[in-house]
Design goal:
Elements (H helix, E strand, L loop, with lengths): L2 H6 L2 H23 L7 H23 L1
Helix pairs in contact: 2-3
Amino acid sequence: MDLKELRECNAERLQEIEKQIRREIFDARLKNYTNQLDDTASIRRARRNLARVKTLLTEKAKVG
């Protein structure tokens, strides 16, 4: 997701996205350990997306 799209989401939606990204990271790490993951950079991208979502959740908690 793009940062603009994430900023438009409410806190509940961001929490759902956070859970989804955490699951993606877990699945990617598991596939990496079993040598089934072709794109190892996807783990890094997912971790950065998770950080973006968590940052936005923190911002919304401080404002709201």
